[in-house]
Amino acid sequence: FYLFFFLMIRRPPRSTQSRSSAASDVYKRQIPYVPKDFWVEFVQSAGVFSIGENSVDIENYVYDYLDSMDSVLNYPGYNQVVRSFNEQGSLLDLEQYLKRLETVPKKEFLGSFLDNHDNKRFLNVNPSFYLLRNAIVFTFAQYGIPIIYSGTEQGFRGGDDPFNREVMWGRMFKESDVYQYIKNIIRVRQEFQWDNYPIQLGNFSKSFASFFRGKVLFAFTNAPLPIFKVVQNQPFAEGEVICNILTLSLIHISEPTRQAEISYAVFCLKKKKT
Q1: 211 near 201, Cβ under 8 Å?
Q2: Most buried residue among 56, 148, 205, 254 by CB atoms closer than 10 A?
Q3: pLDDT per residue of the chain (274 residues) written in tens, 0 to 9
Q4: Beta-bridge partner residues of 259
Q5: CA-CA distance, 131 to 224, in Å (whole number)?
Q6: What is the dihedral of CA 68, 71, 75, 78, to 10 degrees?
Q7: SS3 138
Q8: Residues 6 or more apart from 62 whose CB is under 8 A from it?
Q9: How many whole angstroms separate alpha carbon 34 and alpha carbon 196?
């Protein structure tokens, strides 16, 4: 397993910050201004897997730290997910984000997260378990090392620090719907090893997104209710039977229609019983 060692990285000068980098102001007095060459030497001396934290919403600035350490938290990706999985957001922006991410060296080592102890929880910003489930799947499906902050699996919805650091004792319920949901995603990720395959973009619109990795198709929506969609760019052949592992519904692939009800979905080939 990996030993995660969290590091604080300096933020850029105020003049280089984007309008979306409000989170960096929270860290203004806490993030040390440390040169990158220090982190290179530090990581080599520490001898453990290291993840740096750079809490701004500037992709190039954050991803450049992948040259200085093993990994860095994907704050630009986090901010994009929060913006896109919202009824007022657009999943077309998610498509452009994935295209830009494709050019990033070591993108597989980015720390992919949805909640953390320094920002409002997803449910505080988007109070919909429906949208939360979509965002969780994307966190596991995109490039990177998925990280789940304690309490997400219990549906916590705390606001700004310290209200996003809710007490876990007495509230760690394995029967929680979100807990079981995440457990199921982890199981299928281990079984199908989709992280060994590149992302192949599928169909995108304001309220729908799909892509696949290997023989696993991911489909998302930020609409308030399930939608029906014909997914044209997908990895399955005619006649194959696939299963949405999140709802256990079966779909037979046939021409000319490959229409399915989409709420949140991870489609895999249905394995034959032996």
Answers
A1: yes
A2: 56
A3: 333 334 444 434 434 434 333 333 222 223 236 788 888 888 888 888 888 888 889 999 899 989 988 899 999 999 999 999 987 899 999 999 999 999 999 999 999 999 999 999 999 999 999 899 999 999 999 999 999 999 999 999 999 999 999 999 999 999 999 999 999 999 989 999 999 999 999 999 999 999 999 989 998 889 877 777 778 888 888 778 888 877 655 454 444 444 555 555 677 765 544 4
A4: 230
A5: 8
A6: 160
A7: helix
A8: 54, 56, 72, 73, 74, 75, 76
A9: 34
- Three-state DSSP at 272 gives coil
Return the ∠ at Cα 134 (arms to 164 and 85), rounded to 5°.
Answer: 70
Angle (CA) 167-172-175 rounded to 5° is 150
DSSP state of 73: B
At residue 12's C-alpha, the angle toward residues 11 and 16, to 5°, is 140
- Which pair of structure tokens corresponds to residue 246? 């999140």
- Those residues with Cβ within 8 angstroms of residue 38's Cβ, 6 or more apart along the chain or in another chain: none
**DSSP label at residue 160:** S
Amino acid residing at 56: V
Structure tokens at 221: 């929506």
